[in-house]
Amino acid sequence: QGDGYYMAVPAFVGHKNDMGRLKLLLTDLKPKSSYCLIFSYRLAGEKVGKLRVFLANKKTTPVWEENKGKDEKWRTGKIEIFQGAETTNSVTFESERGKGKTGEIGVDNVILISGPCPED
């Protein structure tokens, strides 16, 4: 087991609708190319909140959103990023606390690969 980190927003501290954000800078992405952002995520607990992903060039609308886990397991999220003439220079993971008092929202293993997202 290697050392590592993952981002977690626990449900039992803070207030409803508190936000947590993790911004990752994407450098050297080629224009007019496809990329795939792959990440592990976990939404554990009743009414734990929402996890959203934003791309820098589409700030207002999340490109991915999840608000409940079927169970407490880690799952894999995939987002296609197509670079037009303007390239995306960052991706932001945003968690919003819900009404729940237990559980957590977690993000881990964020990877960017070149080309379209692989099929499962």
Write structural notes for this entry.
With 120 residues, this protein is mainly β. It has a single domain (12-114), classed as Jelly Rolls. It is built from no helices and 8 strands. It has strands at residues 7-10, 19-25, 34-44, 49-55, 64-66, 75-82, 90-97, 104-114. The protein has a 4-stranded antiparallel β-sheet with strand order 1-8-3-6, with no helix packed on it. The chain is elongated and about 45 Å long. 20% of the residues are buried.
CATH-defined architecture: Sandwich
Q: Regarding quaternary structure, how should these chains be classified?
A: single chain
Approximate strand percentage: over 45%
CATH class, named Mainly Beta
Q: How many distinct folded domains? A: 1
Give the low-pLDDT segments: none
Protein name: EGFL6 protein
Domain MAM: 1-119
InterPro entries: ConA-like_dom_sf, MAM_dom, MAM_domain-containing
Pfam family, one: MAM
Give the SSE layout.
Blueprint: E1 7-10, E2 19-25, E3 34-44, E4 49-55, E5 64-66, E6 75-82, E7 90-97, E8 104-114
Antiparallel strand pairs: 1-8, 2-7, 3-6, 3-8, 4-5, 4-7
